[in-house]
Each structure stands twice: as structure tokens, then as C-alpha cells.
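Quick one: C-alpha cells for this chain, please?
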Amino acid sequence: MRPLVPPEPTDVCPGCGSVLVTMTGDGAGSEAGEAPAHPGASASCTRLFETTLRGLREESAADAGAAATVALADAAYDAQHPVPGDAARAADAVARLAGALGGERGTPGTAAPPVWRTTIADVAADLDVIDLPVLVDAWARAVHQDWCSVGSRR
């Protein structure tokens, strides 16, 4: 019989709703009481985003394709992690996302969707079978469509 191992403590990202293992140690926003590096996101979600995009971010200075993918990922992450009480920041993030998607059609809502179809956790989970630029594009399109689905319910 295997000994019972207590589960890792988890937290829910207030932005995207991903349930992730609670960060401890030397990560961004990981010290007790320290705010996460990205407002609107948990420290664990911010670290997952940073880790997932690190390689592309390093390549982006020399590779226009990598730079475009990083810009799209940044826009999607910002749109998916609105800061409560800062509607202008959310609207700007959604506008940047639509622009990064080449003027994606649809009218975004003024409030964040209650749930998201895809998050950075899904992107990170699929990295072993699908290229990151493909995953980022699909995630960004889903985030924009989620915002637009709220707008169509008005």
C-alpha cells in the first residue's frame, strides 16, 4: 500500500479561473503578501505564463514571427486577466487583442466573460504535442470570441 501523499495546495487565478499549484519560493509574487507581477492574475498563473513564453520572448528580438506571437500572447493574457475596477485597461487589452488578430470581427462585451474556454494552463499542457505559436493563436482567438460572446448577449 502506498503512503498517502497530501495534495499540493492550489489556488484559483482570479482572472482566468485556472486552478494551479500555489507558488512558493523565488517566483514572481511568490513571497507572502507580495502582489503578483501581473495585476488581475495569481502569482502561479503569472509564473506559468512567463515560463511558457520565455523561449519565444528570448527569440523575439531577432525573429519577427516570435515577436508577433509574443505580442499576441501578451494581448490575450491581458484580456483574460482584467483588473477589477479598471474597465479602460480591459477595453484596451481587448482592442490590442483584436488588432493582433488582424482586426478580428465581433463586438466585445464590457464585462469579462464568466468562464473562459481556453487559458494559458491549456496552452502549457499541450506544448508537448502542438507548436507554441499554433497554441497561442488558438488561445487568443478563443479569448477574443469569449469577450464577443458576452457582447452578443447584451
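Residues 13 and 42 are 5 Å apart (CA to CA).
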